[in-house]
Write the structure tokens for this entry.
Amino acid sequence: RAFLLVVLALSAGATTPPCDPLDPTCAHYADAPPFLPGASKGLCSASSPKWALSWQDDFSGSALNLSAWTIAHNMTHGSQELQLYLRDDVYVQGGNLVLRTRFNPTYYGTKLYNYTSGWVDTMEKVFQRYGRFEVRARLPNPKSMRIWPAHWLMPDPAESGHICWPDGGEIDILESYGQMYNDSACGTFHFGTACGQDLRSGPNGRYPDVAGGAKPIDFSVDYHVFAIEWDKDCIKWFVDDHLYWERWTDDQAAPHGARIPQTPFYFILNTAISWWGPAFGPHDPLMPVYHIIDRVSIYHAVQE
């Protein structure tokens, strides 16, 4: 049975090792063929259950609801990303949550970051095991070099026993990559059996299937709904209700068969700048760019 817990506390943000699944230097890159969209397979149901709303934020107020969200400030994520997260780059405007990324040279300690950006999360505030998790958003300009917006889920520390990455799992609802994979949305699942050892194998799910001849989509032009549906056996990825990717328990040969998480997860929304990809100068002329989030929703399955 799905459930939602809401508590009031502060969080410092989660961390993962500095290796991205789309980076060709990353371990296990392209080890296995991609799962192509089509009929549901393995332990994934061919249909979705009936959903009931557990929690939602439509950012209708004048400021971010800090009983649900924490804004990262003077925070870095790994040692190689090029941005520093500042609270000044997170704000509510016109019924949207805005994460701004800009050329804004700022020192944090002795290190100079040429870019600052926004990160918010619901750690130890809003979290749920299983259900449908969705974000309606417009992504930053995909022509901005190495821009890396993400909507993702991580195990809530208090509810998971502070399990290490990636043993507890990481569900990336949405990632997009400026100047590299900017014509599609990517979904990924990281998991493992030991700290720091990612057993994710093969390419990410991608929508649309541009390599297969589908028309590219510029996700900065209009709002789109990026979602996952998760139960005890399976995770399914959607863009605008189009199913494009699935992972299920033991869906590949050992040790790369998925280990579906069984503890509550919380939301992270952020925009990074990757350390890998095409070279570019210290000042991207397209900046500032904006990650505009209209709504974040969590649903639980109900018996009919």
About this structure: Residues 1-39 have pLDDT under 50 and may be disordered. Residues 252 and 258 are 7 Å apart (CA to CA). The helical segments are 157-160.
